[in-house]
Each structure stands twice: as C-alpha cells, then as structure tokens.
Amino acid sequence: MHQRDIDSIVGVLKEKCLFTVQQVTKILHRCPYVLQEDPGELEYKFQYAYFRMGVKHADVVRTDLLQYSITKIKQRHVFLERLGRYQTPDKKGQTQVPNPLLKDILRVSEAEFLARTAYSSAEEFEVFKKLLAREEEEKSESPVPDNKSLSLDEEEEEEEEEEEEE
Description:
The chain is mostly helical.
C-alpha cells in the first residue's frame, strides 16, 4: 500500500471520526482491512453508527464495527428498528427500550441474529432486505428531497386556489 493511502484512512479516523490515536491503533490492529476501504465510505459508516444508531467511539472499536459492510449494518439496524427492538438514543443516551448489544446484532450469523436478537423468521428478513434495497434505490434516484416534493393533493389544492384567483 502507498503511504498516502494509509495516511488518508488514518486522517479520516482521527480528524473526521474523532477517534483518539490509541483507538485508531486498535482499529488498524483489529480490522486491518479498513485500510483498503474508500475513505468516504469509512466516514459514512462511522457517521451512520454514531448518529443513527447512537454507538459510542469505544463501542465502535470494541465490536470491530468498521469491518462490516454498511449494507449489513443498515439491514440489521433498520430491521430491528422497525420491529421496535432498537431505538436511537436521545441526547442523554437514553432509550425507551433496551437496545441489543452490537455484538448480538453484527458479530453473529444471520440465523443467530434472527433467532436471538430480532425474534423473526428468515423469510421476513429476506422480504425486508428487498424492500429496504428498493427504498435505498428510490432515494438515490429521487432528484427532489422528500420534504420539498408536493403530494398530489397539495398540487390539486394549489391549482384550485389559482383557478379561484382568476
């Protein structure tokens, strides 16, 4: 590997993800494959875990979270969230339901995840993964942010108001 590639990854971990030097060392020692990841993808994966899941820096290091694909992380997290078995902690780190441990979400086989953490069937998870993939695809295709697009009802109301004004 080129030194600049290593420096780029280390820079993302230290400056963008705000890991300590000691944490970066542990990450590189425990998950050396992060060096081969795209720096932007690595940052996104951390930000998803930190902001969406409420995972602390130490837990990211301890559970080797960065070794897993963003797809696997999202699939399992959103599945649990929609089942009501995972909740993003509030600003104080509190949740209404106790969240499962990261190791029980990521460091287990799919069968074990479904049986012991999600309490769900493989069929349900397969259908969910397809729907989630479709949602992600639609988001990436949509040129207008969801909150700015008008519903059909709103468009009809605007047209009626314009006609009344004339």
